[in-house]
Amino acid sequence: MISFPGFAGVVASIPSPSSGTLSIGPLKIHAYGLMIALGVVAGVWLLGKRFEQKGIGTKDDANSISVWAVIAGVIGSRLYHVATDWQKFEHNLADIPKIWQGGLGIPGGLLFGIGTGAYMMRRKGIPIARGVDCAAPALAVAQAIGRWGNYWNQELFGRATKLPWGLEIADAHLPTGYASGTLFHPTFLYESLSNFALAGLLLLIDRRRRVPPGHLIAMYLIGYGVIRFFVEGLRIDEAHHVGGLRWNQWVALAAIVGSGLYLLLSKSTAAAVTAPLGGLGDRDAVLADDDAVLADDAAVLDDDDAVLDEDDADADAGDDPDADDAVLDDPDADADAGDEGIDDPPPDADPTDPTVDADDGLPSAHD
To answer: What stretches of 45-199 adopt beta strand conformation (E)?
Structure first.
């Protein structure tokens, strides 16, 4: 029987990195920052591609918008982390800007980043609702890649597990009370894979459904809220708890509820989300139905015009102005027609003519 030394250990756990930095000659690169940078590059590329597909912007627009959105997002992420974990910084204020050591709160990054991005879209004349919809899957991709920074820093892992994909953690990073060699849930991997799946789902929905402007970003917030709620429940790092839940779980629930209410309150347009785009044949059928309705309307209008034409003809026949003018122009015609058959009286006899007997109306002598 052939045996492979060390094979069982490889498949039974995820090894931890030996260092959080990558050395290229004299240059040392913090892997945490590199993962975030790679996520940003991938997200900006996807944003630019979607801008051009939707016809609302260019790749250059995506680049210029993302510069400011990323800066604001990093600042917002760090401020959120510092605010929610203040006990670590209140006596070490110099550690606040050291983001390469880890500690970026995604809720703060989304708030600052999306807000700044929307403002820049407005300045460039890009419709904000359609623009942030284009950014929704890009955000998920950026987070999916950026989460690998937690792996390199050996931080934010979950509780202990005996699952085959348990994560090894070096003794220097072990939480208090855990023995060397303990395996933990790789929450970075769960969140990374889930975000990739969320990005794919959003792209699929946008391709096959008529999504009203502003709805895709709401779907992203719901999806990420669900992912974060369950991943947060596995983590064992120190965090504030309220009502038995970690603070970030409440934030995730707020994102889910708020985005869900937005979709429900705009259900008049959200109904279009469930209507499939269909193929060209479906669109042609809809256009054909519209043409048929227009043809029926045109036929009704033609019938109305025909009735009006008949009424005009009757009016013309009963009231011919030319006939009236003819009567007015020849008044003697009616008089002649009424006196037709009556002989004109003979002209009076000339009294000076001896050959003509005057007719006095009395009997003559020879009668």
So the answer is: 166-168, 183-184
Distances (CA, A) of 230 to 107, 226, 304, 332: 15, 7, 67, 111
Helices (H) and strands (E) in the chain, counts: 13, 7
Q: CB–CB of 157/235 below 8 Å?
A: yes
238-260 pLDDT, tens digit per residue, is: 888 999 999 999 999 999 999 99
Long-range contacts of 50-57 (CB under 8 A, 24+ apart): 50/134, 50/135, 50/137, 50/138, 51/126, 51/131, 51/134, 54/130, 54/134, 56/126, 56/127, 56/130, 56/131, 56/134, 57/121, 57/124, 57/126, 57/131
Give the residue-averaged pLDDT of 84-89.
Answer: 85
Kindly indicate the confidence band of residue 356, based on its pLDDT and cuts at 50, 70 and 90.
very low
Mean pLDDT to the nearest integer, 308-313: 54
Rg from Cα positions in the chain: 47
Domain ranges in the chain are 11-277, 284-317
Of the candidate ranges 114-123, 162-171, 190-199, 339-348, the one whose mean pLDDT is the lowest: 339-348
- For residue 288, CA distances in Å to 233, 277, 281, 295, 329 come to 54, 16, 10, 10, 60
